[in-house]
Write the structure tokens for this entry.
Amino acid sequence: MSRPVGILLAAGQSRRFGTDKLLHPLPDGTPLALAAAKNLCLALPETVAVVAQADSAVAGLMRNAGIPVVVNAGAEDGMGTSIACGVRACDPVAGWVIALADMPFIEPETIVRVAAALTDKQVIAAPAYVGRRGHPVGFGAGYYEALAQLVGDRGARGIVQEHRDRLHLVPTDDPGVLRDIDRREDL
């Protein structure tokens, strides 16, 4: 088996933001989703981006950056379907580190440390900043079936809760693990 694969969830609807937040430029001009993708790829060169439509601007951004795109035709059904779609698109791997495209401030080193914590196929790993669990969340290869069958908008939260005894928190001083951009004022 290889090392974990990064899965960037970029199929969201941006309802609270008002426009497509994933295309919104950060102060340096980089679109939000592309910044998140670059950080994930720096940590895990084997990364795929899950998008809602093959011909969307977000899909084009990812392709132009050299990131393979997986289209989730059921994206409107929620994050769970995007996780399942991304996991099923990967060959057998040592696990997955699932990152959100609206969290562009996570340092690549934090992602590396989460991936490194996947020491066996039954481990779940997540960063913890000032005592709060953040993102991205890593899953060992033993969670393939559970992840590949996800539906709905809860993502993998139920898997983490069900296996909380297997959750390894990785302490970090990276506040980006908690900085989720949902509304314009979050920037």
The beta strands are 5-10, 47-51, 69-71, 95-100, 124-129, 132-133, 137-140, 167-171. The chain is about 25% helix and 20% strand. The chain has one domain: 5-186.
